[in-house]
Amino acid sequence: MIKYSDFLKKIQNKETTCVDFTKEILDKIWENRHLNIFITVCNEKALAQAAESDKRFLDGNPRKLEGMIVAIKDNISTKGIRTTCASRMLENFEPIYDATAVERLMAEGAIIIGKTNLDEFAMGSSNETSYFGNVLNPINNEYTPGGSSGGSAAAVAAGLCHVALGSDTGGSVRQPAAFCGTLGLKPTYGRISRWGLVAFASSLDQIGILASNADDTARVLDVISGSDAKDSTCANISPSQTFDNLQNLPEKFTFGVISNKLLNNCSEDIVRAYDFYVEKLKSLGGQPKEISFTNPNIWIPTYYILATAEASSNLSRYDGVRYGFRAEGEGDFVTRTRSEGFGMEVKRRIMLGTFVLSSGYYDAYYTKAQKARRLIYNDYNRIFNEVDVLLMPTTPTPPFKIGEKINDPIAMYYSDLFTISANLGAIPAISFPAGSPSNGLPIGLQLQSKHFNEDILLQLSNALLK
Amino acid sequence: MEFKDTVKHIAALAKLEFKDNEIDIFSEQFKEIVEYIDTLNEVELGDVESLSQITDFENVLRKDVTQSSVSLEEALKNAPKKNENFFKVPKVIEQE
Known about the structure:
The complex is a heterodimer.
Chain A: H1 4-12, H2 18-31, E1 38-41, H3 43-59, E2 69-73, H4 100-107, E3 111-116, H5 150-157, E4 163-167, H6 174-180, E5 183-186, E6 207-211, H7 214-224, H8 242-245, E7 253-257, H9 260-263, H10 268-283, E8 286-290, H11 299-314, H12 333-341, H13 344-357, H14 362-386, E9 389-393, H15 409-414, H16 420-425, E10 429-433, E11 444-449, H17 454-465
Chain B: H1 2-13, H2 20-37, H3 72-76
């Protein structure tokens, strides 16, 4: 993995240039093409941006992220660079505008190196539902990198970028971060504009950041966060200042520990890592306190009702009329377009969402899930009145093998157990690498905090990774 | 058999269709998933106020001033079929 501050030192010492470094990275991406991490690599554009960055350094006026190599998940719009959502539906789609997050990155001198592979429309936990084929975990190629931001996590882990953007609807940044041994931040809902993020479940979606360290994560968060007139659900507050606050970890803090009963949903490796990091947090000045959730059994059903309901509505726009794939031949062209353009997991979720919203089932499922979401939301408000942060597993198990769960949707959904509650509660959460106990494969643990307190998540991650 | 009919009905609503060999496997998986989310019905949620809005922002409005919009060329850029000014779609009105 590579770190932006190391790169800056090399630039200062004239050991490299942005153009040379970008060329090195592009070569490395080519050498690692068997991992299937990128759907599109931006060779020429990246080199042009790098040349501009070199000029800025030479003139002595570098911007905040000058020369930083960033990979973008391919469900985040990039003007003139194809944005596929790893779907046949958008195989040749070229956005006519940049996502706000991308626009802000480029305005501060970041270099967009390419667009990363993902589960189709971010629906999946293993990167196996991509129309462009699955991504291999760089640490062990027999394993999945997790999903849906598997390409972004693998790109960071393989050292093919400093930072990658992902999106997190139910754990899609944190779970692949855990499986690839990187840091993965899902900020508070409303912290980063969703303008240009292709919608999956609008009340849960949030752009997230994957990196090798807290320093780079903080730099990027501070640049891309902040209000945006183009997204009315983006909070009307100033950008975060996590980079300046990174070293200001409070001397004393309280942290929540989950019950043994909840922790027992995890494999032994995860439980052991959890216990280890409880001690580690204590050594950093943390005071543990056991917290309780009203009913963790409602998390997954609530999530899969709400997320699929919103998805079925959001994905109704793919009708083959204005953009994207259109099926040829006899019959209703809209139905044919959708049936041929979407993969199986996307269809499954559209079907489930349509079902829970359909006449006769709406109150039994959708309304009920909205009530259940209130309980989860209230749980977190109560918990963060009691403690500053909460330590959670990121996943119930270490990384799983390619093919292990793809034919068992419920087993796959279950791998999201510990990540979805943060999306339902709209709180920020970060997955940090917590060792590689099983066959050298990494596992991750999660820190969660109250709304808009990304500061403490990054301060603690920074301290824990040292 | 009855559940397969539900699946076909939902597919029609969602403008999706499944091949005959897909529908059996799909119905079986779909049934399992529905049974799984049904576990939510075991939880008593009578008085809980539903959460339909995750932020507490109200009426986020912008000033009522004209802004530029997407050009015709940009709007048509990704169209699967178009002529000079329009999206082209197959004829949907029956001819006499």
